[in-house]
Specification:
Elements: E1 7-9, H1 13-24, E2 29-31, E3 38-42, H2 46-56, E4 65-67, H3 83-92, E5 97-102, H4 109-112, E6 117-121, H5 126-135, E7 139-140, H6 155-162, E8 168-170, E9 182-186, E10 191-195, H7 201-204, E11 210-212, E12 241-246, H8 249-259, E13 264-268, E14 280-282, H9 289-305, E15 310-314, H10 322-332, E16 337-339
Helix pairs in contact: 1-5, 9-10
This protein binds threonylcarbamoyladenylate (TXA) and magnesium ion.
Magnesium ion is lined by residues 142-143, 151.
Length: 345
């Protein structure tokens, strides 16, 4: 792979133009979206798309999603989308929702890893929109992390993973949502949730029935045929062993006494730091999953910086974007869960 001196530049007009030129030359550029940073290339250029897979070390069977910045960009990418897709677009685009739709022949096999469908997203981030419009290209973009690492929510995270792999990262500051987009397969009369995110089940249900795919809350076999290939991979994982701990705070405090030791940390809700026998990482407000979503990936990266060996995490609520927080934690924890008995003796 080519070794670059990776530049990190603010999203002013000249730098957006530079990004657009690089994209038109078939290069890969890092860019901010409202969810996480992405690793973008021209979706119509198979060689550029191949560079994304190389830069990330991404398995070849894991398809990319394609980013647009106007509804006029949609028709060349898809074939006969169901009417429901337009209803959902009207309501939730631009925003953190990716729709899996039948793929047009104009898009090569590379983007979709040979699947007959393609994921399409219209991000709300003004910088992301400017880059798409300046390049006049639909941009194929996965999250901008090395495969298996937590998704980047700052340009610094992305530089950490992509330094020398790509020529440029546009720095748009911290991502607002902090977790990747909601991924849904769109059918005639309903949708199937493949990955929870900022557009929640509750929001989707205002438009149509929502089926929740098995893979959202359960481990899938590496050899299984799954609706979304990304579900198969251990994801979002720091080097430390992560465990989700279910139960009330007093039981959690007591449990930590039994597992404390060198390199052991507790991820707790804000205000729960006192009364724990190990160093804590505050993880957002209890009952406010937006704050947890915003901080989760940064905290998982901090675990690595601290040299954490084991991290025990308070189990979050699953309503709203809390389902997405829980889904990412399950994967970071490789589905390791401890259930504490809260009953008094
Ligand atoms: O918020 C996001 O979605 C970010 C930003 C950069 O837009 N992108 C992102 O891309 O998270 P990625 O590649 O890290 O995750 C996309 C997920 C993967 O799990 C992939 O397997 C699934 O979407 N996916 C993509 N195309 C698909 C398809 N045609 N059918 C089923 N699943 C698909
Ligand atoms: Mg990803």
């Amino acid at each position: 792979m080519e070794k670059w001196k990776t530049q990190v530049l603010p999203p002013d007009e000249a730098n957006i133009r530079l990004a657009a030129e690089l994209l038109n030359q078939g290069e890969v550029v890092g860019f901010p979206t409202e969810t996480v940073y992405g690793l973008a290339a021209n979706a119509f250029d198979p060689q550029a798309v191949a560079k994304i897979f190389a830069a990330k070390g991404r398995p070849q069977d894991n398809p990319l999603i394609v980013h647009i910045a106007s509804m006029e960009m949609l028709p060349p990418l898809v074939k006969d989308p169901p009417a429901l897709a337009f209803q959902l677009a009207e309501k939730f685009w631009p925003g953190p929702m990716t729709m899996i739709l039948p793929r047009s022949e104009r898009l090569g096999d590379e983007v979709s890893a040979g699947l007959p469908t393609v994921g399409i997203r219209y991000p709300s981030s003004p910088t992301a929109q400017k880059m798409i419009l300046a390049s006049q290209l639909p941009l194929a973009a996965p999250s901008g992390n090395l495969s298996g690492h937590p998704s980047p929510t700052t340009a610094a995270h992305m530089l950490h993973d992509m330094d020398t792999h790509i020529p440029l990262i546009i720095d748009g500051g911290e991502c607002q949502v902090g977790l990747e987009s909601t991924v849904i397969q769109v059918m005639e009369d309903r949708v199937r949730l493949l990955r929870p995110g900022g557009i929640t089940v509750e929001m989707l249900e205002e438009i149509c029935p929502v089926e929740i795919d098995q893979g959202v809350l359960h481990a899938v076999d590496a050899n299984a045929k799954v609706a979304s290939p990304g579900m198969k991979y251990r994801h979002y994982a720091p080097i430390a062993e992560v465990t989700i701990v279910e139960g009330e705070l007093p039981a959690f405090q007591k449990y930590m006494e039994s597992v404390k030791g060198d390199g052991v940390y507790a991820m707790v809700f804000d205000g729960e730091e006192d009364g724990l026998c190990v160093p804590t990482l505050p993880f957002g407000q209890s009952g406010q999953p937006e704050t947890q979503a915003h901080r989760l990936f940064d905290l998982l990266r901090q675990c690595d910086d601290l040299g954490a060996k084991k991290v025990f995490v308070r189990s979050p609520d699953r309503h709203g974007i809390g389902l997405a927080v829980y889904n990412r934690l399950l994967r970071a924890a490789a589905f390791r869960i401890v259930k504490l008995d809260d009953r008094k003796d």
